[in-house]
Structures are given as structure tokens and as C-alpha cells.
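Re: the request from the purification team.
They wanted to know what the chain is likely to look like in 3D before they choose a buffer screen. I agreed to run a prediction and write the result into the notebook, where they can find it.
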Amino acid sequence: MGAMARPWLLLLAAAVAVPASAGVETKIPVVKWGQKADRLYITMPLPDIEEPQVQIEEGSLFFAAHSRGQDYEVTLTMLRGINKTESKYTINQWSASFELTKLRLEPCWKRLLKEKTTYSWLKKDHERLYESDCQHAKEMWRDAYFTAKLEGRSPNVEPAKEEGEKEEGEGKASPKDDFDEKKKREREAFEKKIAEFRKKAVPRTKKDKKGRRRAKKSQEL
């Protein structure tokens, strides 16, 4: 009887030896995100991360790791481009954190991902939302946009350098000087428009004024 029971004991031992993670479905981690005008902040709260894999591309972020008996993996396809050489990440005992530099300074993104689908695992990190920075960037972008329109050029194209303009770093104007110069150009363009409208307007005569007064009095009677 003891000899016959041995195969069953071997099978039981084999079952116990199977790793706990075998057959466990890979999950998507919780992704919390915030931003400034020039960068993104992404946090994945996972404790005791093991065997992390990170790949940052110009348009996406890939992350995979093992945490407390569970495998996690996610690929985030961003709304717009990322400067992968300027981006960085850190992994500690409690989470994986990413600081991703945007390709350009611009108004804050309305969403993180290119697709508009809503996911339960994707959440805004209210501790990393910088509303004043986003508002400032929006105002600067709007100012640059309408200035370009007034100058008759595309808002998406940088203005060409004037002949004799100094190279970068040589006699470069301060941001305040640039802002004042833009305001001056806007004011001049506005005054020019007003002058054109006044030229097209039909001047009033004394007879017109008297006729309007008489018409008004007759209506009152």
C-alpha cells in the first residue's frame, strides 16, 4: 500500500512546486498623471517592484514589472511628442515615477493619451496639476498666435530673421522686451485698422444732423 501511494505524493509535490505567478493574468497598473506646460508627471503606485522594463519613445511609454506576485504591463501612446533624451524615471519601494519632457512648450494637454477612450486605471494626479503654469502658457500661446495673424504669417512657423539680425546669445532681447515689442506692433496694427475704417466712413454734415433732430421731434409728437 505504501509503495502505491508514492506516485500520488510525487504528483502533489509537483503541484506545490509550480510558481505562484504561473497562469496569473498580466494586469495594467494604476496610472496617475499631471503636467506643466513643458513636462508630464506619471506615477504608477506599485510596491516592491521587481524586474522593471522601461522604454521611452518619442510618442509612447512602455512599462512592465513584477510586484508582489503579480505581473503588470502598460503601453501609453501619448497625445503629442516627448523628448526621450530629456526624460527620466525613478523606481523606489512604493512606486515608479516618470518625468517626461514635452517636445515643445505649449498649452497644457486636455488628455494624456492620443485615443479619447476613458479608462478606469488612468487617473489625474491632483498633486501634480499646475493650473497657474498652464494658464500662463495658454496666454503666451494666444498672444503669439494673434501676433502672427496680425503679421500675416502662419502661427505654426517661426518668423524669419531680419537681415543683419544678431545670432542667438549676442545682444539677445529679454522676454519682457519681446513682449513689449509685440504689444507695440499689435497697437500699431489696431490703430491702422481704425484709420482705414474712418476713411471709408461717410462724414456727417450739419444738414444731416438737423434732419435727424426734426425726425426725432416728429416721432415724439
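For the purification team: The beta strands are 31-35, 39-44, 49-56, 60-67, 70-77, 82-91, 96-102, 122-129.
Please add any questions underneath this entry.
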